[in-house]
Write a structure and sequence with these properties.
222 residues; alpha+beta; Serine Threonine Protein Phosphatase 5, Tetratricopeptide repeat; Alpha-Beta Plaits; 2 domains; four-stranded antiparallel β-sheet; 4 strands; 43% helix
Amino acid sequence: MLMLITTSHAAEPPPDEKWLFERYQAGDIDTIHYLLDRLPDSSAAGKFFRGVFESDGDAARFYYDQVVALYPRSIAEGWALGKLWQYHYAKGDNDQAQRYYQFLKERHPDHPYLTPVPDFKAKSSLVKPAVSASPTQDASEPKPALWAVQVGAFGRKSGAEATVKKVKKYGAVTQVVRETAGQKLTVVMVGRLESMDEAQRLADQINRETGITGRIVALDKP
């Protein structure tokens, strides 16, 4: 009797973790994506790379936080700490970004995500400060013309596209590609509002209905 034997990825051993991160550092994302279903959900590499391919920034952060909590001083932890400091830096939370950066520096002193060194005291280039007029403000100083809600900053185009789909019903969507800490990110903003109060109400509505936490930013009139 003839027997057919089939093989599947599930029956094969998972790829070597060190090799996976070497491929990741080399930019071979396609190979890692192809192998993703062979990485156990409970492994450090499995959690990290599921975060990499997660389109939602907050969901990706959850994976990276798990790696740091469950696999201290592993290869994956170093890359997860790098992702976490970049995530918070892009969101404008420089204090939290600096904490993750310091953990990375202490535990993985030769990690590539340590360079270039960001200026944690400066405002992120992804976020324009929300400035309101004051009695002492010079009339000649430029004032924000319009306000928007920044709903994310994404290294992967798919992440930006997924967020645009969630928020486009709330108003005009603006996408701007900016660079911070050596990484190009697509910033997604929604709304073109005349006042900060309107923008805050929109941010509250988006958070309530989608779970996305946005921040108020100033836009320049075209």
